[in-house]
Amino acid sequence: MASCKQCPSQDVTFEEDIVNINPPPALQNLAIQSLLRDEALAISALRNLPQSLFPAIFEAALIDGHIGILKAMIPVWPFPYLSLGRLIRNCNLETLKAMLEGVDILLAQNDRSSRCKLRVLSLRNEYHTLWRIWGGSYEGKGLPEFMTQQQPVENCPDCGVNKELKVTTDLNLLDGGLDESATYLLQWAQQKKDSIHLCCTMLRIHSLPKDIFRDILKIVNTGCIQELHLKELYTEELVFLIPYLREINNLLTFMLSSIRETYRMDNSTRLDEENISRFISHLPKFHCLQNLYVNDITLLGNNLKDFLGCLGKPLETLCLTSCDLSQSDLDYLPCCQNTSALKRLNLTATSLRGLVFRPLGVLLESIRDTLQSLELELCFMEDSQISAILPALSQCSHLTKVNFYDNELSLTILRQLLYHTANLSQLTYEVYPAPLECYNDMNIILTHKLENFCPELLDIIRANRQPNRVTFATSKCLICCGSYVYDLETQRCLYQKELLED
Ligand SMILES: [Zn+2]
Ligand SMILES: [Zn+2]
């Protein structure tokens, strides 16, 4: 841990994550706003409006809470797919009720309106481009593919459910249970189960009220769940979940984070260890799992081999962050069949201090043709350790991202590292620690040294390729939590409070 000379205390404000949407043309916006002011008129006009206006009107109605219009738009929605995407943030119980009442009307129509094409209503916050329809960015570019009538709508091929209409959602089980919207949605789906398929693709369990959990699984088809997050659960709750995990057989992403330990007067630490071992040894085979995230679990130590035994096929992502890895865990990594095709490997904040790195080198060698992202931030690596992986690292020619931040490397070994990454022509994002020579005996950051070293270090890369985004950064100052960053853009050593947003 370092501290800096000045500890600047300036407030660094960050711009909000502003999404850059092309707003609908001003005139169209005005027309929509004036239409929405007269709800009855808007509803009566819906049938005659051009299809292309529907997304923009729906968005405006959702944001301003015109529930009557939302309800009326669903039964005449002219596209097979309606995805709220990021607009889900504007959704509350009232707007949800209005949309579901719209679905009720749609389902009750014997003579389906020739206009309504709706097959899927997605209430997920999906981070793909579908949401752009709301911004009007389709204007003049034609409608996105999925909005055309020819687009086939998959009705949950994985879980084999085929109902009239699919409603997709994520569910979050938190301390107080489900939120009121999710509770309402589940009750509604239960009543409409003959015609609606409620498809829950992502289930986050951050607390486990067991009754509510059982109720959810009475309504949600476990075969639909592709992403499962278990966070801050007690070890006995993990054991409780074992039989249910067996049913979640289409899981693609599994995230296990921050297991809570029980502190009692008796030998409960031992009980936790027993529970963890029991949980790990009873994990079912996840036949399609692609991404495994394990975070902040110190009880994992020495159990990694058994844990990875749940994999049914080669993983794409392995993240073991803030964990305890033993030498035998590290030794096992390259021996596991299902780590042989990794695209992303992340060991951030997992201490590898004092471990023999040869197995990590063997692993890198075996994934040299697949690996795209390697994060070894804050692993307490030292010179001799990183030397052991350099030959393998330089063969990972598909790497686009590497992060070695916050490791204790000397200038000499940092140069060596750069000679090796300089060969990796696909790299677009690189983070390196400031060398040990940038701190004095008292661990005070010497910014002028960083400023002096960096041009030379950058030249090592430039000798082989044009770098894209390269950053050198000091450890965080103990007092102000800021660090000094030298990057390609500024080519200066600057103080930063928040480091390395990628
Ligand atoms: Zn400071
Ligand atoms: Zn489904």
Total helix count? 15
Tell me the series of helices and strands, N- to C-terminal. Answer: HHHHEHEEHEHEHEHEHEHEHEHEHEHEEE
At CATH level 3, the topology of the largest domain is Leucine-rich repeat, LRR (right-handed beta-alpha superhelix)
Summarize the main sheet.
15 strands, mixed
- Largest sheet strand order: 1-2-3-4-5-6-7-8-9-10-11-12-13-14-15
The portion of residues forming beta strands comes to 5-15%
Outline the low-pLDDT stretches.
Answer: 8-22, 128-155
Q: Give the overall shape, derived from the CA principal axes.
A: globular
Classified in CATH, the superfamily of the largest domain is Ribonuclease Inhibitor
**CATH C-level name of the largest domain:** Alpha Beta
- Corresponding CATH architecture of the largest domain: Alpha-Beta Horseshoe
Q: How many extended strands?
A: 15
Ligand inventory reads: zinc ion
Determine the fraction of residues in helical runs and give it as a percent range: 25-40%
Overall residue-averaged pLDDT value: 85
- How many domains is the backbone divided into? 2
Instruction: Return Rg in Å.
Output: 27 Å
Q: Helix- and strand-based class? A: alpha/beta
Keywords: Leucine-rich repeat, Repeat
Protein name: Oogenesin-1-like
InterPro entries: LRR_dom_sf, LRRC14/PRAME, PRAME
Family: Belongs to the PRAME family.
